[in-house]
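User: structure tokens for DNA-directed RNA polymerase III subunit RPC6, please.
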Amino acid sequence: MADKKDERSPVAIASDELYKTVVENSKDEKGGFTLTFSQEQLLEIAPASVTEKKDLLPIIKYLTGQHLFRTLKTDKGLGWSIRPREAAKAIKALDKDEKMIYEIIEASHTTGIWTKQIKAKMGGLAQPIVAKHIKNLESARLIKTVKSVKAPAQRVYMLFHLVPSEDVTGNSFFDAGDLDESFRDELLNLIIFWIKANSWAEAEKKRHRKDKSKKDAASKEDAIMIDDGNEGTGQKRKRPANDIEDLSVKPRHYQRTHTFDPETDFTQLAHRAGVHHYPTAEDIHQFIISSDAIKATKSASLTVQEVQGCLDVLIWDDKLEKLWNSDDGNWGYRTKRGVTFRQPGQAFDIEEQAEGTGLTQAPCGRCPVFDVCKEGGPINPQTCVYFNRWLNA
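Assistant: Done. Predicted tokens:
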């Protein structure tokens, strides 16, 4: 049986071929149609039978009449973007007002438009009628509602097949229009961790051997001999361990759930000038996206510019400093001396682990209601639960 002959006109056949080619070249990495083509660009990807602009114009006119092409004004002149076939078919069934609302929303492109702005552009059309037309367009899957980070309470509409711009949805630090604070904090912590690991020359770690002989020697050195008060005998006795005047006892660390491991303590030594490559924004970005430290969806959307923004924040917080890399002529980054990162699962600041005075170790030194604590009051030393915890620690 012979193949059925295509009875369409040459213009319709060429238009179909051009439309398919434009679809293939219009999709971005997220699957949305965002590109606009000039007449010259369309001529480059047109079928072989179309060699001149005069041959292209009937095709553009045909696709525009079928609502498959949309005409736009650009800085370089006229341009055309495509519509999905499903949308073009649905547009043909719209009434006059619905088509006007659709074109208003279409003109907003990837930034979207508010309901109030749509009503203002529709002139004297009543708000209930505008709302009804918008609902019909949503039901036909021609438009959609997106959440704007700039105005979360406002409804923003855009075409169903478009991908919202970052001005609307935010960057990688936003999730469904809301700021993802946990991701932001973890990313900053991860950046400090990696930069610190590549910023300093690590000195030899101090090994603390816990053999018995050294323990015994230390205990003998810590023993303080005092007079027992027996005149004439000259006998000496060892000061009791619980003697409150024993100043040889080192202050207790203020700790909650974590103690320092001396095996991990090291000295930060600076590299000699001009011999070390400090991490650049591109290096840090490559480390983050190639590691499993963050979710794959976040890793795919994270950009070098967003990493650079994090670096700027850390510089303003006095945690990083910029250094010039003489090997490649780019700015690198190094942590400030003493800056550390938060260990995974650590629930308190690193400063809380340091040794301090008796006042800072006792609960009163850190109590936020110290000024209102008094005997007989609702907050008083007799009923303070933190004293027992501290004394029993």
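User: Anything notable?

Assistant: The longest helix spans residues 10-26.
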